[in-house]
Amino acid sequence: MFFVDKSDTAFAPLPRLADEKGAIGRPKVRRTGRAKVTGTAAYTAERDGRHSPDSFPGLLHAVAVPATIAKGRVTAIDASAAEAMAGVRHVLTPANSPKIKVPEGAGGLSFQSVEPAGPAGAESQEIVHAGQYVAAVIADSFEAARDGAMAVKVSYEEEPNPLIAIEAVRGSQERPESLMGDPPVMEEGDAEAALREAPLRIDQQYKTDTNHHNPIEPHATIAAFRRDDDGSETLSVRDTTQNLYGTRGSLAEAFGLKPEQVEVVCDYVGGAFGSKGVMWPQALLACKCAKLAGAPVKLVVTRRQLYGGTGFRSPTLQRVGLAAKEDGTLTGILHEGLTITSIRDNYSDAVVMATKVMYAAPNRRLAQRQGRLNTQLPTFMRAPAETPGMFPLECAMDELAEAAGLDPIELRVRNEPEKDPTTGKPFSDRRFVECLRAGAERFGWADRPLKPRQRREGRWLIGTGVAAATYPAFGFPTEVELTIRANGSVRAVCATHELGTGTATVQAQTTADLLGVPAGRVTFDLGTTAYPKGGVSGGSATTLSVGSALRDAAEKLKAALVQHAPAESPLSGAKPDDVSFDSGKLVLTESGEGEALEDLLEEADRAELSAKGRYSPGESDYSKHSFGATFVEVGVDEEFGLVRVRRMLGCYACGTILNRKLGRSQFLGGMVMGIGSGLLEVTHHDTRLARWTNDNLAEYHVPVNADVPDIDVMWIDAPDFNASPIGAKGIGEIGITGVNAAFANAVWHATGKRHRSCPITPEMVMA
Ligand code: MOS
Q1: N or C: the chain end with fewer CB closer than 10 Å?
Q2: How confident is the model over 523-561, as pLDDT tens digits?
């Protein structure tokens, strides 16, 4: 089923990949599908005691009180009216808030803004962004808590000129400390000189706007402190999170507990897209409320509070310069980006990162600056570096193709590097040109006119555009436990997350092939810190990290089973390397002689046998990235400013696709989100108040079915065993990375007008 054309890879190919019996690749449906469509899958935000009567008896509800100013200080909090309301139990303010140690944070983020701000004398009184929590109301019901929260009177001393627009910090000279571990300035040769001297040059300013994630399940936490008979304290938490162990570590630190005293559980995540990758203040606030009330407390962030209390995608201002010879060969690449961060904390989208691997040139300068605004801290949002960063690069490539009189695909093929232009390492596997060619063929690119404004159908000008997609093959340290049982069943567990991607389904398929058993016999459980450590489910890293740890566990199980083989067995004394799992047996690879797994356990008098597996990516000799090509066709009505998506096609090279159906859904989801970032989604702000104004789903436009045409998804079936032990590279994010630029390029092709700001909105098209 898969095309494996390399045998000298860093990791040996999985034996079953090319095998008809294999489970990997099969289009199995999500194991969680039935629970989700029948409404029995309980998300954190909707757990109310009916779903989990045993977990949180006497559950109370808390609603946060957000600051209504963006800069200044709290002078007084009057909770008396709220406290007198029916159902209200407590009002948490800095005066009675349980003391915590502000945790160091995870993923390089700090948490300076997690303490509720209060009046003078309280530990924190400074307001640095609108929506910062200043208090919380704890009540018998969500409704009573919400009413109470509206009755809390907060007085402020407001400072002038809060900043929310990126243009206000255009001149900032501050550099981010690092860009995902890389320095914020990378220079070789002289890109500015190359730009001055080149016969062909593009040098333009670009903008990408603020986006908010808008998961359907908002951030939510249920917290309960328990005191056991021996006097020891435990904190039990249900949290909607992409990072179970990260949240556990931060909460333990905050409340002075050992990590083992904190349990974090999350069965399902109702959308995240990066927004639940680090712990946000609501989790700490819920725990504080539980402590104050001496009862379990649930806190669900409201839709509006998602725009002030949790992270978002930074707006960016970027400059891209491309210098080229007459034939389009690049001689210089300049990419400078400005992103934003909050007043006290640090996060910067690494927008120049993709440029490091896309194209080579002897003269390159990649540099980033950041400015500080009165906002909550920005955070990861689906392909946080590439979605904003590939927009100017791939628009500029289209402009260069126009200047060179070349087809945009031909220009990219001419600039295809042989190795990673920055590290000099060979690519684990690249296949970008294959994606361009295969995509172009299926999309019907061949007869596309080079010049714009060549096709019209009634009111609609029609154009097509292409752009590259890329994403790194990240992996995070991950541990799993794998158990085979005498009854023939197999169970794997890991504290990883079900983001809707089908983790349990695809890892059951992986386990099945690793052990040579049918996938139906394999259970994969996740979602609690009771299981071995999973990494953050971000960076498109979960599938390859968990699968690679499972491969390690399967190897260890093999060694343990050989040890348990009785003296008369052909397996007795065999080297683990000389045996393999095959069709429910462990056999000598050479002869095929061996024994059924059940028999081996029976003979060893064991009901089950377990092994722990680990994956830690470490340094690689290879540059590990996925690549792809995104094609779109748009219709543009210039009078009404409308851009309609007519067709989209994505072709990707991401290594092993573990499940054709769920893999397609991941690519598709990324492309649909790209319709949002490219054409629809922008969080507007009020410059005077420094507040987001369209903080709701009615005015913040995520794509709906009417915006989404039939989308064609294809990929190159080529496992990449230089990238990971299961040949897979992540697929959750690459789908969105080329879409912004593909739209801008298609709108130019339709109309002849370049838009260098994203999303492309009706007023821009009409202007
Ligand atoms: Mo993704 S933005 O790394 O959760």
Answers
A1: C
A2: 999 999 999 999 999 999 999 999 999 999 999 999 999
Four-residue CA torsion sign, 164, 167, 172, 174 = positive
* pLDDT of residue 108 exceeding 60: no
Pocket lining: 380 vs ligand 1, CB cutoff 6 Å: yes
184-190-196 Cα angle (round to 5): 120
What three-state secondary structure class fits 271? coil
How wide is the angle at C-alpha 391 spanned by C-alphas 385 and 392, nearest 5°? 105
Ligand 1 center from residue 733 Cα (angstroms): 7
The answer to whether the beta carbons of residues 727 and 719 sit under 8 Å apart is yes
Range 616-620 contact pairs with CB under 8 angstroms and sequence separation of 24 or more? 616/475, 616/477, 616/478, 617/474, 617/475, 617/476, 617/477, 617/545, 617/724, 620/10, 620/425, 620/428, 620/722
Q: Is the CB of 538 under 6 A from ligand 1?
A: yes
Ligand 1 atom index nearest CA of 382: 2
Q: How far is the CA of 301 from the centre of ligand 1 (A)?
A: 20
pLDDT tens, 432-477?
999 999 999 999 999 999 999 999 999 999 999 999 999 999 999 9
| C-beta of residue 603 within 8 angstroms of C-beta of residue 566 | yes
Mean pLDDT of 732-755: 98
φ/ψ of residue 585, rounded to 5? -120, 165
Cis previous bond, 392, omega within 30: no
Give dist(CA 753, CA 532) in Å, integer. 54
At 682-737, the pLDDT tens digits run: 999 999 999 999 999 999 999 999 999 989 999 999 999 999 999 999 999 999 99
The pTM assigned to this predicted structure is: 0.96
Shortest-distance atom of ligand 1 to CA 273:
4
- Best CA proximity match to 289, nearest among 235, 230, 248: 235
Token pair for 122? 């309280």
Kindly state if the Cβ of 384 falls inside 6 Å of ligand 1.
yes
Helices and strands of the chain, counted as H and E runs: 17, 30
User: Residue 218 C-alpha to ligand 1 middle, in angstroms?
Assistant: 16
Q: Compute, in angstroms, the gap from residue 429 CA to the centroid of ligand 1.
A: 23
Q: At what angle do helices 281-293 and 244-255 cross, to 10 degrees?
A: 50
Known active-site residue 158: no
Q: Report the distance separating Cα 139 and Cα 113, nearest Å.
A: 25
Beta strands in 552-624 (DSSP E): 579-582, 585-588, 594-596, 608-615
